[in-house]
Write a structure and sequence with these properties.
- The protein has 56 residues and is of the alpha+beta class.
- Strands 1-4 form a two-stranded antiparallel ribbon.
Length: 56
C-alpha cells in the first residue's frame, strides 16, 4: 500500500527531502507521492509536522 498526502499538507517540503526513493514531489497546492515509486518505508510520515501523510 502506498502512502498518500492529504489536503492538510502545508507544502513545507520536509517529506520530499526525507524520501529515499524520490517518490515525493511538489504538486498543485500540496506535495504528492508517486504510488509506483513509493516503497512504504514510512520516512515521510515521521517528517510531516502536520500528520498529513497517510497509508491507503
Amino acid at each position: 500500500m502506498a502512502h498518500y498526502i492529504t489536503d492538510d499538507c502545508i507544502s513545507c517540503g520536509a517529506c520530499e527531502s526525507d524520501c529515499p526513493t524520490g517518490a515525493i514531489s511538489e504538486g498543485d497546492g500540496k506535495f504528492v507521492i508517486d504510488a509506483a515509486a513509493c516503497t512504504d518505508c514510512g520516512a515521510c510520515v515521521d517528517s510531516c509536522p502536520v500528520d498529513a501523510i497517510k497509508v491507503e
